[in-house]
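Aim 2 progress update. The chain analyzed this quarter is reproduced below.
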Amino acid sequence: MHNLDTTFAALSDGTRRAILAQLTHGEARLSDLAAPFDMSQTAVSKHVRVLRDAGLLVVEKRGRTRHCRLNAAVMKEASDWLDNYQTFWTRQFDNLAQVLVGQEE
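Predicted structure tokens:
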């Protein structure tokens, strides 16, 4: 399993999550990823580097431009890890519902 600490650290920043959201629509040039943000392309490049180092996206240089695409496999690993807690919380809420129904009677 990929290093979850690195994945969650990369996902902890709103700008990086927004970049990943853009990439759900398909591959994009770095300059296009930077356009919606009120920051320099260099600053966006730093966010992209964190995401790349975490394995969440792939950067490919084509001529003078860099193209980015989502690597959803790493995100799936994080989602699978979180799913374990979904089961826990569902069980907790089911138990609470049973207690509350018992109090009503």
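Residues 72-104 form the longest helix (33 residues). Helices lie at 4-11, 14-23, 30-34, 41-53, 72-104. These observations will guide the mutagenesis experiments scheduled for the next reporting period.
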